[in-house]
Design a protein that fits this description.
Blueprint lengths: L1 E6 L6 H14 L5 E6 H8 L14 E4 L4 H9 L4 E2 L2 H8 L1 H10 L7 E3 L12 H11 L3 E5 L8 E4 L2 H11 L4 E5 L7 E8 L2 E9 L13 E4 L6 H13 L4 E8 L5 E7 L5 H7 L3 H11 L3
Parallel strand pairs: 1-2, 1-3, 3-4
Antiparallel strand pairs: 5-8, 6-7, 6-8, 9-10, 9-12, 10-11, 12-13
Helix pairs in contact: 1-10, 3-4, 4-5
Bound molecules: adenosine-5'-diphosphate and magnesium ion.
Length: 294
């Protein structure tokens, strides 16, 4: 079997290189050759207006570890099977889209207001949105950019003034205003799903920040054997509804111990999970792909 590992040309950090190395190392034991391709290289090939990938170059699958959504969709139009599928990557990339899709599936999530589309960063603000957020959630509440990762675009705002300033600083980028789940302050669960299984989980905690992300200073402990059925089932449901083959699912702790979906990562960084639990998600992902019968 032959696959392409599609990566982003402009992401060169050690963190990503390590991840790609793990995926490539996991390919050979599955009898598979994984060939690395950058999005730039593929767009170069696709520049020819009637370009069709020649039969001898076509891989059996594409492990798409990028968020170049136009490229993902184009590869699917060329009848390639993507892991994860383009629509699933898109649904996770945009936190407001994840929220909407999961809401329709009845998956418990923090109540949210979605920002209306803005064309320009014109310094204008919808006062109704601020008062609605205040009435619905009170303070503090969470503002979350629709596109972001490592906790870097998630803000806890303490009053209406800070809410307005945060919205203004986000400008024309889309965002959500969300109820702050105080019972989960600085604490969440990361469950790694591959196929129809949760292969490992970790509890992430940060005493100094409301965000539990490890990149942001959080600390992880193995939670795989402590997972409840409710937590496992919620993660599997979210992955299914979003059309993913594998994902890192973040869950918050509700005030009565119930689980609340925080977000779903289609391209989760599984190196931390490996360090914490010893479970290598790359091996599970490659096995899932190469053993699928379709
Ligand atoms: N509504 C919320 N209430 C409480 N904590 C939250 C909420 N939303 C996010 N968090 C915290 O912030 C962290 C980052 O948010 P998340 O939506 O996962 O964005 P990112 O993609 O940056 O990881 C979460 O892991 C969680 O600890
Ligand atoms: Mg997260």
């Amino acid at each position: 079997m032959r696959g392409w590992l599609v990566v982003n040309q402009f992401i060169t950090s050690e963190k990503f290189r390590e991840l790609f190395g793990m995926l490539e190392a996991a390919a050979a034991p599955c009898g598979c050759i994984l060939e690395r391709m950058s999005n730039s290289l593929l767009w170069g090939k696709l520049a020819e207006w009637d370009y069709v990938i020649p039969e001898k170059e076509r891989p059996d699958f594409v492990l798409f570890w990028d968020k170049d959504l136009r490229l993902a969709a184009e590869l699917e139009r060329q009848a390639l099977r993507l892991y994860n599928p383009a629509a699933a990557i898109e649904a996770c990339d945009d936190k407001s889209l994840t929220w909407l899709i999961c809401r329709h599936a009845g998956i418990p999530q923090a109540e949210s207001l979605i920002s209306p589309k803005k064309f320009h960063n014109d310094g204008l603000i919808d006062p109704e949105l601020v008062s609605r957020a205040e009435a619905l959630f009170g303070f503090p509440c969470v503002v979350k950019e629709a596109f972001g990762s490592f906790g870097q675009q998630v803000y806890l705002v303490k009053d209406a003034e800070e809410l307005k300033n945060t919205i203004l600083s986000i400008g024309e980028r889309p965002y959500l205003i969300q109820r702050f789940i105080a019972s989960s302050r600085g604490r969440d669960l990361r469950l790694q799903v591959v196929g129809d299984k949760v292969i490992a989980a970790m509890l992430r905690e940060n005493a100094d920040d409301f965000r539990a992300n490890l990149t942001n200073g959080g600390h992880a402990t193995d939670y795989t054997d402590k997972l409840t059925r409710e937590q496992t089932e919620l993660a599997l449901r979210a992955v299914k509804v979003l059309g993913l083959d594998f994902a890192g699912v973040d869950l918050l702790f509700g005030e009565n111990g119930e689980s609340i979906l925080c977000e779903v990562n289609s391209n989760a960084h599984f190196k931390n999970l490996f360090d914490c639990t010893g479970v290598n998600a790359a091996e599970h992902i490659l096995r899932h792909i190469t053993q699928r019968k379709e």
